[in-house]
Amino acid sequence: MKCYLTIFFVCIVALCVDSGTITKKEPELKIETLKAVECRKKSKIGDYLMVHYRGYLADGKEFDDSYKRGHAVMFHIGQKTVIKAWDEGLLDMCEGEKRRIISPPEFAYGDTGFSGMVPPGATLTFECELLHINLRDEL
Fold it and tell me: Which residues form the signal peptide (predicted)?
C-alpha cells in the first residue's frame, strides 16, 4: 500500500511539474468606451474613417495630438495602413463615439519605436473620437 501511495505521489508531482511549463501570455488590447453613442452604422473592415486622437506614453506624456494639429486622420480600417491597435480597437464604433485604447507594443510600434516620439517597447494609450464613417459600400 505504501508503494502505491509513493507511486501516486510521484505521478502527481510529475504532472504538476509538467503542467507548470512556462507559457507566454499573449498581449491584449484594452478598449474602454469614454462616450457611448447609439447608431445603426458601425465601423467595419474596409470602411474609411475620420478620427481625432491623442496619444500618450505609459508615463502619461503626450506624444501626439491631432486636435492640436487641427487635422483628423483618415484611413481604411482593417487594411494595415495604421497600427494594429487602431485596426482592431476602432471596429464596431459609432460616429461621435469616444474610446480609450491601451496598446501593448505588439499592437503599436513594437521593439523599434516610432520616429523618436515613441521609444522601443512602449505601451501606448490613445483617446480616439470617431468623427465620420464612409461605409465601404458607399466608396
Answer: 1-19
In a domain, 44, yes or no: yes
Q: What is the mean pLDDT of each run of 10 residues along the chain (139 residues)?
A: 46 48 81 97 96 98 98 97 98 98 98 95 99 79
CATH number of the domain that residue 39 is part of: 3.10.50.40
DSSP per residue, 97-122 = -EEEEEE-GGGTTTTT-BTTTB-TT-
CB-based contacts of 28: which residues, under 8 Å, 6+ apart? 104
**Full-model pTM:** 0.80
Q: Is 53 a catalytic residue?
A: yes
Task: Based on the residue annotation, tell me whether 64 is a catalytic residue of this protein.
Answer: yes
Q: What is the CA radius of gyration of the chain?
A: 22
